[in-house]
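Record pair follows.
FIRST:
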Amino acid sequence: MLSQIQVIVCITVSWLVASSGTVNVAIFKQVFQTCANVVQQVPSDSLILCSATCGAAKLDCLGFCYSASNASCMLHKSSALTNSAMIVGMRTYSFYPAAAHATAFANCRALNNYLAIPASASEVTDIRTAAKGAGGLWIGIDAVGHNGQIFTSGGPADYGDQPVRYAPFAPGQPDNLASAEQCIMLWTNGFNDAGCTILLPYVCQSFVPYSCVALPHPAYSADYMCYSRL
């Protein structure tokens, strides 16, 4: 699956210039981070053609990545995502009503998305914003079957069972991970352990957990550039 996924996310706006032409800065901004996400790949022999292809798709194309050395144009299509509620750069979040933790996880995967797992304080803010101020939210972390130790939810095929890289628990938490409260929620002041059958709203993210890297990056060609719709 990794060969079919690419790209995502954002930080800086600049004039976008390439030897083959310029990108319309009234429509797109360059982003200097990319994340694994399902995209549509089309052949393209220039940056300007890739940009025009995304532009012609209008709001269905949220952004694109281009590599001249590979003559490839990766289009990030909203039609490939479901119920897109918020876009940050090229990361997409979707908000859903209350469900048990396992149901929330399964619903996100059925959409080819992932139950949101924040990797930083800024991503916590993004998730809260996507949830439109909802209080407690399920996130894709639990201790089920792990003797009180937290891991990303799901199995290896779902990018689960990974060590958790960012876990700002609220004061006094977690307090019951090894028994009755083995699923993790995003509380108003940090992470909290909770009973997995509690019904809470949740946010799905479009990108593979912990897949975001800053560009340039050795995993991508040196001329790999990404742009997000404004």
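SECOND:
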Amino acid sequence: MKTTLPAAAAMIAGTLLLSGCQYLPWNALRAAPDAAPANAAAAPTTQAPQDASDQVVEGQGSAPQDEDEGGSVSAPAYRGRASGTRDTFYFQTPSGKHNCAISAGDVGCNSTAIPASAPDVEGVEGYVERPNAIAFGAGSAAHFEVTGDPAYIYQGADGNFGEAKVLPYGQTLRAHGVTCSVSESRGVSCYGFGHGFTFSSQDYTLD
């Protein structure tokens, strides 16, 4: 049987087409899974609730700003331990000269270095004396005073007077609506109840 030229050409083309094909497995034709969008939003995170035992009423005072202004300390770490003082917060300055306390009704510091320019005041026996403390309250402006006992010094769990936790320079303690801080240049500053003081062994300001 004779094969015509057009038919032969068609057979050759079909052979070449088949020889150029390769086998592809069925799963190679499946679409690849979509990639996660680059700007996909992260899952929201939640914060653990604060322990209620560490919550205190923070200060609303406005103590003077200093060049060594820092952060705030944890108030519960300064809480009193003796009976009757659990609601009072005590601190001493890094120098150890000034010991202070913040209670619900008043704020004060006993000091072994009252500035020489501070006025003499009436003592517990009615005599005029050099003051050994500075204080203010919810109903009284800041003033110097004489305390017969160390009214603002920390007492341990056994009731004996001891050393309060140091409030570092530049740090702030807030409790009972009062803000106290210690500055290396200005000394102790406490403000709240609409009153306040700043004092060191050299100078003082009463509000």
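COMMENT: Residues 5-19 form the longest helix (15 residues).
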